[in-house]
Amino acid sequence: xxxxxxxxxxxxxxxxxxAIPTTILNCRRMHTVIAHxxxxxxxxxxxxxxxxxxxxxxxxxxxxxxxxENLPPKLQELDLTGxxxxxxxxxxxxxxx
Length: 97
What we know:
Elements: E1 9-11, E2 32-34, E3 54-56, E4 77-79, H1 90-95
Parallel strand pairs: 1-2, 2-3, 3-4
């Protein structure tokens, strides 16, 4: 992905991935990350993408998430459904209002 800096949308659903490559952070125009139905255990750093609007991490193996103090201003959708081990603390929920 290091050569794909202009990439705006990424759909890597259903690939049994355990992580999203950190090189995604080089894609400064990325606005949509769809990674449902994988085996992702650690919340990826996609919230550092300045243009991100939609993040779908549903149906993975997430157990906790760490959100930045300031969410991306353009973020409209964050789908975390179907992660049976995911527990959100009150601080994370407050950030999602």
